[in-house]
């Protein structure tokens, strides 16, 4: 049964922002436990930074922007329980605990740096408590605003004259962000404007963000979605109705290389082969201009049990070795457009990235 209040419009824009995954109550952070979807909608309440870090590490909350937003609230929560004499050191420890939760999505480190800058400019603990809360709320609200802006920018470069299909990977929707979504926000907007024929959602092995989250998020809102096994993507592209592959990002480097969910790189290769355009949609908090190229991005590897089992059901011999990188890097040369809230960078390279992200 759909709870209509969970698919609420943003009060500023009146646009439907999708399924809410992060709720902030001033004294506690509530996270929708995404490990249990789609069977169960259970909220977990966090009151300290360690709890938030555990939720990020264990995938209660996931998706680059949502990780950054949650970490920012984690710092705000940490500040609430500190003592005047030692709050700066204790806050730095909380930031370190949050920073150690997951390595690839740069939004985490971006949000923590922003929170540290705010803390560094505060004279007293009381001031820090107030301003860190405001900063976390601002990061949350800005992410939603960025998603709405990106959807508009993205549509401006999609010149198809009749409704078309797209293919997406992982979950980049309201569940992964402050609301609406990055790649899924663009897909939502295509649907809202009558330009979407169908979205093919890769199931996204091994964690199944596509089948458990994207298919759920879209189908409960009436967006036409077809779930497919990851291995079916080439065959779907060969049928001819998919015009764009649209994905999110966890880190974009100075030359336009993109780290995103494992399997994204193979989609980019397939798209090029089939003459299908490839779009990456991410807020500028995902851009890391300190890294020259994707080879420098730390790629998270998770436990082999994520591949060998699904919710305890055994899928492989217990003793087999597993390689489980959960992100890959798509070279900029395979990307037709990177969309941020600042606009669209077509055929990204170091020069075009620098024009937007290193102005002057
Ligand atoms: O491991 P996850 O689920 O955190 O990975 C998520 C992705 O790779 C998303 O595509 C990316 O974070 C963009 S979410 C708007």
From TrEMBL:
Uppermost EC category: isomerase
GO molecular function: S-methyl-5-thioribose-1-phosphate isomerase activity
Keywords from the UniProt entry: Amino-acid biosynthesis, Isomerase, Methionine biosynthesis
GO biological process: L-methionine salvage from methylthioadenosine
Annotated site, Transition state stabilizer, chain positions: 170
Top-rank taxon: Bacteria
Matches recorded under Pfam families: IF-2B
Associated pathway: Amino-acid biosynthesis; L-methionine biosynthesis via salvage pathway; L-methionine from S-methyl-5-thio-alpha-D-ribose 1-phosphate: step 1/6
Family, per entry: Belongs to the EIF-2B alpha/beta/delta subunits family. MtnA subfamily.
Physiological role: Catalyzes the interconversion of methylthioribose-1-phosphate (MTR-1-P) into methylthioribulose-1-phosphate (MTRu-1-P). Also catalyzes the interconversion of 5-deoxyribose 1-phosphate and 5-deoxyribulose 1-phosphate. Part of a bifunctional DHAP-shunt salvage pathway for SAM by-products.
Name the UniProt record assigns to this protein: Methylthioribose-1-phosphate isomerase
Species this chain originates from: Marinobacter zhejiangensis
Chain's gene name: mtnA
């Amino acid at each position: 049964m759909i709870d209509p209040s969970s698919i609420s419009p943003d009060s500023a824009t009146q646009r439907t922002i999708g399924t809410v995954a992060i709720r902030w109550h001033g004294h506690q952070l509530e996270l929708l436990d995404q490990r249990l979807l789609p069977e169960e909608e259970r909220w977990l309440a966090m009151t300290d930074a360690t709890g938030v870090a555990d939720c990020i590490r264990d995938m209660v909350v996931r998706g680059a922007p949502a990780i950054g937003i949650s970490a920012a609230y984690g710092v705000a929560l940490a500040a609430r329980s500190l003592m005047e004499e030692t709050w700066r050191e204790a806050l730095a420890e909380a930031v370190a605990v949050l920073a150690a939760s997951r390595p690839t999505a740069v939004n985490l480190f971006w949000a923590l740096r922003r929170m540290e800058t705010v803390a560094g400019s505060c004279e007293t603990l009381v001031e820090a408590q107030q301003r860190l809360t405001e900063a976390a709320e601002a990061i949350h609200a800005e992410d939603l605003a960025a998603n709405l802006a990106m959807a508009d920018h993205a549509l401006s470069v999609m010149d198809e004259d009749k409704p078309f299909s797209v293919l997406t990977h992982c979950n980049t929707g309201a569940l992964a962000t402050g609301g609406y979504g990055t790649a899924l926000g663009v897909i939502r907007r295509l649907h809202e404007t009558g330009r979407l024929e169908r979205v093919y959602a890769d199931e996204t092995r091994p964690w199944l963000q596509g089948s458990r989250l994207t298919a759920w998020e879209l189908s409960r809102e009436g967006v036409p979605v077809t779930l497919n096994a990851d291995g079916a993507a080439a065959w779907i592209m060969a049928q001819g109705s998919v015009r764009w592959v649209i994905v999110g990002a966890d880190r974009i480097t100075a030359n336009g290389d993109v780290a995103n969910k494992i399997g994204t790189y193979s989609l980019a290769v397939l798209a090029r082969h089939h003459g299908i355009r490839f779009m990456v949609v991410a807020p500028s908090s995902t851009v890391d201009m300190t890294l020259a190229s994707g080879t420098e991005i730390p790629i998270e590897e998770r436990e082999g049990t994520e591949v060998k089992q699904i919710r305890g059901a055994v899928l492989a011999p217990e003793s087999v070795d597993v390689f489980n990188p959960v992100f890959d890097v798509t070279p900029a040369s395979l990307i037709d457009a990177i969309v941020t809230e600042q606009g669209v960078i077509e055929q990204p390279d170091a020069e075009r990235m620098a024009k937007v992200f290193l102005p002057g």
